[in-house]
């Protein structure tokens, strides 16, 4: 009986550890920047992108300064994959009253632009 409980706990720990990974910033994502002012007319709007970081196990303060950092990294990676280098109009619809009490997923949305260097 004791062996079954120990084995069950080990399997559960491995499964839970797999759910708490953080989004790392890719090499291409490093060239994407956030801006507060709408990009100039010589920038091309490519569309919208989303970045998400699961917080169920890592909580609000996971690796790299928290779950919003992971969501921002995912957003920058997704923008780079679209061919963009600027993100404008970022919003975080996941930050609400519930997220103050329970570790919900962090989500960031933004408009992706390709601007001349």
Cα separation of the termini: 65 Å
- Poorly predicted parts: 5-20, 58-65
Q: Give the overall silhouette.
A: globular
Instruction: Report the major sheet.
Output: 4 strands, mixed
Helix content: 25-40%
Instruction: Tell me the strand order in the biggest sheet.
Output: 1-3-4-2
Beta-strand percentage range: 15-25%
Average predicted local confidence, pLDDT: 77
Compute the number of strand runs: 4
What is the rounded Rg? Answer: 18 Å
**Regarding quaternary structure, how should these chains be classified?**
single chain
Q: What structural class results from the helix and strand content?
A: alpha+beta
Query: Helix and strand string, N-terminal first?
Result: HEEHEE
H/I helix tally: 2
Describe the overall structure.
With 117 residues, the chain is of the alpha+beta class. It has two helices and four strands. It has helices at 2-18, 67-81, and strands at 33-35, 44-53, 86-91, 106-114. A four-stranded mixed β-sheet has the order 1-3-4-2. The radius of gyration is 18 Å and the shape is globular. Mean pLDDT is 77; it is low at 5-20 and 58-65.
Structure, briefly:
The chain is of the alpha+beta class and about 120 residues long.
Topology:
Blueprint: H1 2-18, E1 33-35, E2 44-53, H2 67-81, E3 86-91, E4 106-114
Parallel strand pairs: 1-3
Antiparallel strand pairs: 2-4, 3-4
What are the key terms here?
alpha+beta; globular; four-stranded mixed beta sheet; 117 residues
């Amino acid at each position: 009986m004791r062996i079954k409980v120990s084995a069950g706990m080990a399997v559960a720990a491995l499964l839970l550890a797999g759910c708490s990974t953080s989004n790392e910033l890719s090499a291409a994502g490093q060239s994407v920047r956030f801006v507060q002012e709408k990009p100039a007319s010589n920038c091309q709007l490519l569309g919208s992108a989303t970045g998400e970081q699961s917080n169920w196990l890592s909580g609000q303060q996971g690796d790299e300064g928290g779950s919003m950092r992971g969501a921002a990294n995912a957003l920058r990676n997704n923008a780079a994959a679209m061919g963009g280098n600027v993100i404008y109009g970022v919003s975080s619809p996941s930050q609400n009253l519930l997220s103050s009490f329970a570790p919900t997923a962090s989500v960031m949305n933004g408009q992706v632009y390709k601007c001349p260097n």
